[in-house]
Amino acid sequence: MELEGKTALVTGAAKRVGREVALDLAKSGCNIILHHNRSDPSQTVREVREHGVECTTLKIDLTVPEEYEIMSSLDSVDILVNSASTFFRGDFNSTTIQSWNQSMAVNLTAPFLMMKHITPLMKGVDNLVVNILDGAGLRPWKNYLAHGVSKAALLHLTEVTARTLAPRIRVNGIVPGPVLKTEGMSDDVWNRVYSKTPLRRPGSPRHISSAVKFLAENDYITGEILRIDGGEYLETR
After folding, report:
1. What is the dihedral of CA 8, 174, 138, 189, to 10 degrees?
2. Per-residue confidence of the chain (237 residues) as pLDDT tens digits?
3. Cα–Cα distance between 160 and 168 in angstroms, integer?
């Protein structure tokens, strides 16, 4: 896919990894539809527009299915990146029904509904969906039960829809490793997290955004799950 002039919708794009993905695609000439909810998108919008592309905002509470109807007003979309996510900590005993439902709503149901609403707007011969996954969806992290189950289900949704939506729409997933501290994490804990990877250093959101661009530009990849994790998966098998 040639990125110049294409339109990409990125969820959770006001901050963190979603923000970097939106900025990197904009740098390559993509017009951006920037989804946000409670986060202020104004700074990211300004930075996207500095690359000479269009940027419109889309405010949706991803846990409210009725709010997705606003997307019927959109024109064509070429790339959808489902980046918005929750990250609840809790094992089997401590996970509440509230945190379970919130994890499923944001991490699984939202990408499903986004795909249902956006894929009919994908008119070209090569279109792309990228779902941002998590290592907790590949391995049984007992202290992140709801999060891990939701991301494991999203991985399955990624592979099923890669078969269903082919050949015009490719669907792939990216599993980030330690590329960004979670909110409230101390430097000592962060050091311990990335030091456990074979590369013994943290990544950055740019590693994820470059993987999104790679998947966009290589039109013979679908159903693939890329681990951009510094080898973290190898240490925990």
Report:
1. -100
2. 999 999 999 999 999 999 999 999 999 999 999 999 999 999 999 999 999 999 999 999 999 999 999 998 999 999 999 999 999 999 999 999 999 999 999 999 999 999 999 999 999 999 999 999 999 999 998 999 999 999 999 999 999 999 999 999 999 999 999 999 887 888 999 999 999 899 999 999 999 999 999 999 999 999 999 999 999 998 865
3. 15
Q: Provide the residue type at 5 as one letter.
A: G
Domain 7-235 fold: Rossmann fold (3.40.50)
Residue 182 is given by DSSP the state P
Ranges of each domain in the chain = 7-235
Q: Coil, strand or helix: which one is 8? A: strand
Q: State both tokens at 103.
A: 């994890």
Q: How many residues does the chain have?
A: 237
